[in-house]
Write a structure and sequence with these properties.
- There is one protein chain.
- This protein is mainly α.
- It has two domains: about 100 residues, Helix Hairpins (Orthogonal Bundle); about 110 residues, no CATH class.
- It is built from nine helices and no strands.
- The radius of gyration is 26 Å and the shape is globular.
């Protein structure tokens, strides 16, 4: 039985397996370079396949940039490093445990589910700890600086908040009418929910007194981010629409407080 060889062009189009670093010969322990290669392969694999770890890495970059910009002390930077490493290691161990369980069983097993839940709980504890460390570090580093910046603006009465929110809604409606996309309460550019949420965050930052300004501003910002996240995950808005809406709400409110405050 003869086999017809493929044309050269078809041979080039055949799928080729991805290149992998050579494995150590049987009976030979991996070299130091091999060990580093395997470790980096594991990190890259998790980054490619796990969305949560990509989020953690992005958050780590933002935290480091903020820490450098604010000039935190060496001890505070060490605390941030340990907290971030704690979260990343927990997330990678969680991924490894899930992979081992998925390979070892093909049917539902309550113990397997329990093991996955415990691993996910470890990640949650690490994340909460990192948030607490980040708050303690940035509250002292950024709280006083943010208070000095906000104190340069005249104290604005709470009535200005209503003016800012109404203006934000009008800007959102006008933008949607101009783009011709979505409805006043659903879809389109920009996201009205994100605009109002971030407008509330900016207004709360200005209205609250100095003693509780940082904590209230942080909490309202988290709630605004959660509103934006729900709009994206529900498929009502795209990321660009949500980001644009949040920017509109925050900037319009900032401008109102600057002009009328």
């Amino acid at each position: 039985m003869s086999v017809t060889p493929l044309p050269r062009g078809d041979e080039d189009q055949r799928e080729r397996p991805p290149r992998r670093p050579p494995q150590p010969a049987p009976g030979r322990a991996p070299s130091l370079i091999d060990s580093f290669n395997y470790a980096f392969e594991g990190i890259i694999h998790v980054l490619r396949t796990q969305r949560n770890l990509r989020i953690h890495f992005l958050a780590a970059v933002v935290v480091f940039a903020a820490a450098i910009a604010l000039g935190v002390s060496r001890l505070q930077l060490i605390a941030l490093l340990l907290a971030i490493a704690f979260v990343l290691v927990a997330e990678m161990l969680n991924t490894a445990i899930e992979g081992v369980i998925d390979v070892s069983t093909t049917s539902f097993d309550p113990n397997a589910k329990l093991a996955k839940d415990i691993a996910a709980g470890a990640v949650l504890i690490a994340s909460i700890t990192a948030l607490a460390v980040g708050y303690l570090v940035f509250e002292s580093a950024a709280g006083s600086r943010a208070t000095r910046v906000l104190d340069r603006v005249r104290n604005a009465p709470a009535e200005i908040t209503l003016v800012a929110l109404v203006l934000v809604v009008l800007v959102v409606l006008a933008t949607k009418a101009w783009t011709g996309r979505g409805t006043p309460l659903r879809g389109g550019l920009p996201s009205g929910h994100a605009a109002v949420a971030f407008a509330g965050w900016m207004a709360a930052t200005y209205v609250i007194g100095d003693d509780h300004r940082f904590i209230v501003s942080s909490l309202t910002l988290i709630m605004a981010l959660l509103v934006a996240q729900t709009r994206v995950e529900s498929g009502i808005h795209s990321v660009i629409e949500v980001v644009f809406g949040g920017a509109v709400g925050a900037l319009v409110t900032l401008a109102v407080f600057q002009l009328l405050g």
